Amino acid sequence: MFHHSSKLQYTVRVDKPDPQFAKLLQQAIGGIEGEIRVAMQYFFQAMGARGDDRIRNILMSTATEELSHIEFLGHAVALNLEGAPVTAQEEAAKDPVVHAILGGANPRHLLSSGLSAMPVNANGVPFDMSHVYATGNIGADMMANVTAEAGGRVLASRLYNWTEDSGMKDMLSFLIARDTMHQQQWLAILEDMGGLKASLPVPNATPQSHEATEHSYYYLNTHLDQDAPEGRWSSGPSLDGRGEFSVKAQPEPLGQVPSLGKAKPNSGAQKEQI
Amino acid sequence: MFHHSSKLQYTVRVDKPDPQFAKLLQQAIGGIEGEIRVAMQYFFQAMGARGDDRIRNILMSTATEELSHIEFLGHAVALNLEGAPVTAQEEAAKDPVVHAILGGANPRHLLSSGLSAMPVNANGVPFDMSHVYATGNIGADMMANVTAEAGGRVLASRLYNWTEDSGMKDMLSFLIARDTMHQQQWLAILEDMGGLKASLPVPNATPQSHEATEHSYYYLNTHLDQDAPEGRWSSGPSLDGRGEFSVKAQPEPLGQVPSLGKAKPNSGAQKEQI
Amino acid sequence: MFHHSSKLQYTVRVDKPDPQFAKLLQQAIGGIEGEIRVAMQYFFQAMGARGDDRIRNILMSTATEELSHIEFLGHAVALNLEGAPVTAQEEAAKDPVVHAILGGANPRHLLSSGLSAMPVNANGVPFDMSHVYATGNIGADMMANVTAEAGGRVLASRLYNWTEDSGMKDMLSFLIARDTMHQQQWLAILEDMGGLKASLPVPNATPQSHEATEHSYYYLNTHLDQDAPEGRWSSGPSLDGRGEFSVKAQPEPLGQVPSLGKAKPNSGAQKEQI
Amino acid sequence: MFHHSSKLQYTVRVDKPDPQFAKLLQQAIGGIEGEIRVAMQYFFQAMGARGDDRIRNILMSTATEELSHIEFLGHAVALNLEGAPVTAQEEAAKDPVVHAILGGANPRHLLSSGLSAMPVNANGVPFDMSHVYATGNIGADMMANVTAEAGGRVLASRLYNWTEDSGMKDMLSFLIARDTMHQQQWLAILEDMGGLKASLPVPNATPQSHEATEHSYYYLNTHLDQDAPEGRWSSGPSLDGRGEFSVKAQPEPLGQVPSLGKAKPNSGAQKEQI
Amino acid sequence: MFHHSSKLQYTVRVDKPDPQFAKLLQQAIGGIEGEIRVAMQYFFQAMGARGDDRIRNILMSTATEELSHIEFLGHAVALNLEGAPVTAQEEAAKDPVVHAILGGANPRHLLSSGLSAMPVNANGVPFDMSHVYATGNIGADMMANVTAEAGGRVLASRLYNWTEDSGMKDMLSFLIARDTMHQQQWLAILEDMGGLKASLPVPNATPQSHEATEHSYYYLNTHLDQDAPEGRWSSGPSLDGRGEFSVKAQPEPLGQVPSLGKAKPNSGAQKEQI
Amino acid sequence: MFHHSSKLQYTVRVDKPDPQFAKLLQQAIGGIEGEIRVAMQYFFQAMGARGDDRIRNILMSTATEELSHIEFLGHAVALNLEGAPVTAQEEAAKDPVVHAILGGANPRHLLSSGLSAMPVNANGVPFDMSHVYATGNIGADMMANVTAEAGGRVLASRLYNWTEDSGMKDMLSFLIARDTMHQQQWLAILEDMGGLKASLPVPNATPQSHEATEHSYYYLNTHLDQDAPEGRWSSGPSLDGRGEFSVKAQPEPLGQVPSLGKAKPNSGAQKEQI
Q1: Which of B10, D144, D153, D238 is the most buried if burial means most Cβ atoms within 10 Å?
Q2: At residue E104, does pLDDT exceed 90?
């Protein structure tokens, strides 16, 4: 069960409102790198977590933290929109510089939300929940979470570089820090479960008899005109300790030429196909 | 530039066509765990890869392989739909067992595609390209790729368990094997670049001065009624070697009570808000 | 800032797991009548609420409650999926009745989520955040909230009728009750602000000079072959007390025949259009 | 059956074409507050209306009117795009002011539609039909319709404020007026059916025995640090006359700690979960 | 401006309601081959039609007809859902055959729409307006319209084959007929404008100087292991009379090896990329 | 099976990077007129092609070519983004002209992709695979392909007109040429199968007994106030040689007034409807 306290998790200060930056911040709320995504991803993973109950606990706890991130980011968007012109008669709206800035703002902040945050990304595309990655497999889910936090910290760093507002920089430095920890904690769960090597290949419970293991450790070079680049992936023991890496170049197809023959009568095809 | 040869990368054999299994296989084509996704993800990552040219090379090579996976899976879907009834007059359509099976099939395999594969998932929802994760940051992208392959191998294992068709099991054992290698190779790139620790936190180029590091290594326990579970994440050195893990329980908000005050006149609010 | 306690807001009990009912319950999680929607709608309305701070307070408080509803519904879905067959070899999977039931289940509960809830509706379509209605106008937002709760209570009633599981009926009777209160509380806010009449027309701050009031109170009958039905809408004082209802039948167009003339050269049109 | 006459329902005049305003107007066509939405919503409600045939009649009649609104708004978009530059060689395109304005225009008006309206919102996101709210319950549907018209009138008022073109202001004043009437008429239907109180809670046909009525009339305050605000919702008779409002603060969870135990073998989980 | 008469364009009769067929019929309403699509496509093409005003006239007229098709199909869906069980207590719901049929029905017809039509396809996926193809180029638009009607007639034929209800067969035979005419009329417009040859290549107004004509008439065979099949496309005069067809086999890339070099500092990349 | 060579199909040269043009080019990658669409459409059509194996061969070959188009367009986007400012501190970012240009750029090229291409259109909306038109009917599919290539050539022509960069013009002239050929080749397949007339109406295998042929050849004029325009569609032999065109004006409805009567008890309706 969820509870709320009325203060924000972290202080939000905007020294100089900037409607364009409000648009950019939306990526951190409703983008695939954003906070709705991680909040919902951890929430649904928690609800489906089977096995070690500590993991469900951590997932739900961090889902809750991410909800608080949405909350202060939403406030940051609204503060960046404070005072934006809403009529063509306002002095600001007649200023060509303001006009240019508004051209780069999200018009729906004016038209649809009344100068406040929306669950959309920096292009105004609404977040959709297909981005909640939750498989019921802890290995796959932890990887998905590291991915989400890595993307989130890339985004926060880019936003940090793009603003000169010290309040916004302060808030983003907090987000950068929390994304550091969240990357760490999901990897630490894998450590706790025996380490990355023991987790591989995900799912590690798939019996090797279900796997055509002769195809499990070669790198397939599909380029016709270049050799495979050499590196950790091209030779030496595999990372799960079950095989040896090799390279397969100029691969020959192993299968047949596909053909479906004639179409069935009454199947909606043209006469010529039947 | 791409080329094609007419044979499939791997043999596709269906001993007993099954329209319900055709529906399930669609998840491996058009699901977020599927082959369109990885093909397009590696393709777009390749086109945006900056730095070590070997990585662009590998990304494009494996994108090409994944296109071949779409191709043989598409053939598998069509073969599972061979002979399905298309009119109410056919004997098969009158068989209650067939009728029940068709109730569990995707009706658009009959109505829309003429008994062949579609770029949709097992619910018939079309794949959308927002699932192409490509940040321009190699660390984030490699994690996204491991995630995709982990999800893919979980799916292939579940499909393997759900069928009794030996041809389908054979094809899926090949997919399971290739998903093993692809998990390996993306992690091997991180190894090649100095190892996971050196990559953390992603992006590792963000200066620590941009980060409120006092918030970078504590696990935040937002539960009111439970202590934080102990584990690798709650104490000891952080995984990037830059800090020490700790736990922050019963966290107090650090920010203000948010309030936006009155609405601006002419902003479309109610009189009572202005 | 959000907090969490480890128990569910309400008890979830499933006497007899039913994968088909798990699919139906998804509508209450990820449907437009579902809990993700109201949680996020009230959350974003709260973040954009200007004027009376009590309203922001109530919106955030109820958003928090709705998050708890997602949580127990998610548990209900997982419990309905407990024990569902995951391999073709299981006895249950060979039972024709079970087979028929699984044909009516969501295959992604098996393939994608590992037998747990997903943020999708009963068709497996992911929720998308465009359904978060939040205009910054309290009148419009309260109406949107009554609408959401009315739809939610219709859905909960239909689910209640469709199950015979006493645990599920108990849980749904709680949801029906809370949807009653939530309908009430949003209307009560309008009462508190002066009543529905005073709120109309939304936005009530739009000056009448911006309105072609000669068109504000007639019902337009666009049927060619039927008179307008008579009722409260066709005569008598308008509900906002500003006008008198009337009927306009067989309406004549007030505007011009539209024509755009020739296409511009170099605009990508055919020669014949230029 | 539908018919058409060649003139527009209302005159459209654009004194000074403005590609940026063309982009904003798209919200009134393809936004969730727009005309496609109400046209389709009333149309589908009409097709599913059971009970009093007057309501089906009104729904279809007003659906037809909304189609006419799409038509004149579409013409308004095209007229705002008249003369926009389509090649980099045109003088206008070289004017920095025009260039800035075009930066704020929808590039697909140039690239995709050939300078005419599209069924998208002001961000260029296509309308999707999930926003057609039609439950088969007249109470829920009328509320949804008031919501749609309230949102529509908020939008039309904001557009009115944002333009200085007298032709556009005239057209928008007509839309504001019709949105007034449409808010009125849907509420008038509820009046006609016995009034709002008799309609509550929606659906009013749900037996009270299906409802855990001990939870039906308390406001739940989930804030840990603030008392519930007092108002019409916190005490006194409920709006449906069936209960008394009260406040429940510091709510205790009523349910269990959820736990799903181990994962099933062969379910695609990690070994550690089984 | 639109008008309505209260009768349907064509009689709808359902001899034996069938909830599964109701689901299939949804494809003809909300599928990409369905009536919402053509109604909206012709409507938006009409609003953007420049040049010959007859074409705008025909587009709007046929858009109006397609709205009438939505209307009678919506009625057909509702009639197929008449009497479907809505509670688990009904006798019908306990019948295993009915149960199996309902497993193959759209659960949202029960849960969300109250036994009536929805603007979704046979998978329950809502129609989205990105499928409104309207370019402002008459040649491209007419082709898009023939495509839509061809897809529509394929679908109607498949539905016709799948039902044994004589009322439904009668209604579908009308749709098949109208789709015949609509294919004809869009092609007839091209005839009227000088014939298909004169329209090619679309847009026929693009100057040949904008085209690398040495690449305009060869068929590119990208297969490595098969010769190009011979046919009308491989030799002889081109269909626009401007060139000669030929085949280019084993094509060599004409471009460079792409490389983007290092990433920019502060661009969110890993250190290793900079 | 697919293969790759490391060079691009065609040279990409950008003389003067332009982030706004990078945004426009996205339409040619991820728009409905773009290359992802045709690549995937031909790919899925190939996988479902029944009948003449030459057609499958051509479809797959051209799908492969379109993948190469994505590749060089993706490179063109990245080159247009080369050197764009990524921090507010850069000189360029402070230049008002650059600032205005960036206001018209896609912010996600900066925030999400690290200055490279994305699978989105010029509005930043991701491509979704519902636009893969593949019916299993060769006639319908070839029409869909001509439509796609006509739309593609319209787009390429508009992009050509909008840029002054000679490298971009050169690349676009190649695309314009290939779109010419692709329009030709899909029509040539219809020629090869007997010509357009023999293909009509699609599907040509539908028996005339399934068609209410008395409705197959009249143009329906739904305008109340205008006569049907005369032209090839209004009189003379039909294009399939099976009938005579005529005009039906002032059409009378052929069907009934629809009414659904009362709602079923327990179906979630209001009391007044039952």
Answers
A1: D153
A2: no
Counting residues of chain D whose pLDDT is more than 90, the rounded percentage is: 92
DSSP string across D202-254: SSTTS-GGGS-GGGSSEEEE-BSSSPPPPSTTTSEE-TTSS-EEEEEESPPP-
List CB contacts (< 8 A) between C154 and chain F.
268
Which residue out of B4, B66, B185 would a mutagenesis test of the A interface target, given it has the greatest number of A Cβ atoms within 10 Å? Answer: B185
CA distance C61 to chain A (A): 7
The residue type found at E155 is L
At A34-56, the pLDDT tens digits run 999 999 999 999 999 999 999 99
Chain B residues with CB inside 8 Å of F132's CB? 118-119, 126
Domains within chain D, CATH numbers bracketed: 19-197 (1.20.1260.10), 208-249 (no CATH)
In DSSP terms, which residues pair with B233 in a beta bridge?
none
Question: Residue E263 is nearest to which of B51, B107, B123, comparing CB atoms?
Answer: B51
Contact F162, F225 (CB under 8 A): no
For residue range A133-162, what is the model confidence (pLDDT) as tens digits? 999 999 999 999 999 999 999 999 999 999
* Residue C124 to residue E124, Cβ atoms within 8 A: yes
Nearest CA among E171, E107, E96, A265 for reference residue B99:
E96
- Count Cβ atoms below 10 Å from residue E173 Cβ, excluding itself: 22
Distances from the Cα of F4 to the Cα of B61, F1, F13, F171, angstroms: 7, 10, 21, 21
C-alpha span between A214 and A236 (Å, rounded): 16
- Which residues does C contribute to its contact with F (CB < 8 Å)? 154-155, 157-158, 161, 266-268
Give CA separation, E18 vs B124, C24, E14, E98, E104, in Å.
22, 20, 9, 10, 11
Chain F closest CA to D16's CA: distance in Å? 22
Flag if D71 and E115 touch (Cβ within 8 Å): no
Residue with tokens 């170099």: C266
CB environment B114-131: b (16+ within 10 A), e (fewer)? bbbbbbbbbbbbbbbbbb
Provide the 8-state DSSP code for D165: -
Residue F93 has a pLDDT of 67
Tell me which chain C residues have a C-beta less than 8 angstroms from the C-beta of E144. none
CB-based contacts of B19, cutoff 8 Å, min separation 6: B80, B81, B84, B101, B102, B105, B106, B109
D209: exposed, middle or buried (C-beta count within 10 Å: 0-12, 13-18, 19+)? Answer: exposed
Sort out which chain C residues have CB atoms less than 8 A from A48's CB and list them: 74, 78, 113-117
Nearest Cβ partner for B104 among C104, C112, C138: C104
Residue of E123, E183, E218, E250 to mutate for F, most F C-beta atoms under 10 A: E183
CA–CA distance, C206 with E62 (Å, rounded to integer): 39
Chain F neighbors of E202, CB-CB under 8 A: 149-150, 153-154, 183
* φ and ψ of C156, to 5 deg: -60, -35
What number is the ipTM of this complex?
Answer: 0.96
- CB neighbours (10 Å) of residue A250? 9
Residue of B nearest to A11 (CA): B255
- Residue C178: how many other CB atoms lie within 10 Å: 26
